[in-house]
Amino acid sequence: MHATEMLRDIPLLRGLSEETLSELEGRATIKRLEEGEVYLNAGQPPKAFCVVLSGQLKFFRVNKAGKEQVFGYARPHDVFGLTSLTDPYKSVPVNCLARSVTEIAEIDLPAIRELMHREPQLAVAILKEQSKRYSDMLDLVDQLSLKDAHNRLAKWLDAWIDENHPEAGENEVLVVLPYTQSEIAAQIGTVREVVSRGFSRMEKDGILRASGKRVTILSRKRLRQMAES
Question: What is the dihedral of CA 32, 128, 160, 39, to 10 degrees?
Fold first, then answer.
């Protein structure tokens, strides 16, 4: 897919003129990352404003004991590097690597900053997106501080279904999770064994049935109750 075709589909860039999109395309460089390839390490200066064209990126930190905390993923149509637009001297706070073969469009930061001055609509959209991500981070801190791991697992699973199967509603639904139990554990701030026990507990309570990555939600209502307890 041509870079500009993808740029037109990015919510952050919708409403920009063809001329402006063409200008961005001219400033964009397509970069291919292999599975497992590191794009950025925490503490490095930012490289560019980036649009994910295909594949998936993971943003994470690892402590001295080797425990990993995942802060999020970027999929096609997602953007990252927003903080650098308003704070160009701030180093990157997380590591970033490709979970699969991934292509991104890098747009140099001066070009986007110049565009923000010319296009107030874009500047407002960027501020809204940064505010949303800040709220998401506060929610993660809240979950890690106030919820036990099994509650966090239930909340994560309910939110994942909302995002990826919005048509499911309250009905019984079979889903195939794209993550291993270790990867889920890294997202909710625990270890694989706790996630395994969490799924076993929810099976015992009649909330779901699980077989590897295939999970059948039997009671969405009880899943939400566990998430909020």
Answer: 20
Q: Is the pLDDT of residue 175 over 80?
A: yes
Q: Which of 18, 45, 48, 8 is nearest to 31 (CA)?
A: 48
Mean pLDDT of 140-147: 74
Q: Are residues 114 and 168 in the same domain?
A: no
Identify residue 141 by its one-letter amino acid code. Answer: V
pLDDT for position 146: 67
The verdict on 41 and 118 lying in the same domain is: yes
Can you tell me the distance from the alpha carbon of 221 to that of 138, in angstroms, rounded to the nearest whole number? 25
Residue 22: how many CB atoms within 10 A of its CB?
12
56 and 20, same structural domain? Answer: yes
Q: Could you tell me whether strands 102-107 and 49-54 are parallel, antiparallel, or unpaired per DSSP bridges?
A: antiparallel
The angle at the Cα of 181, spanning 36 to 204, to the nearest 5 degrees, equals: 170
Dihedral in degrees, nearest 10, Cα atoms 174, 203, 197, 177? 0
State whether 45 and 64 are in the same domain: yes
Q: Number of structural domains, the chain?
A: 2
Burial of 109 (0-12, 13-18, 19+ CB in 10 A): middle
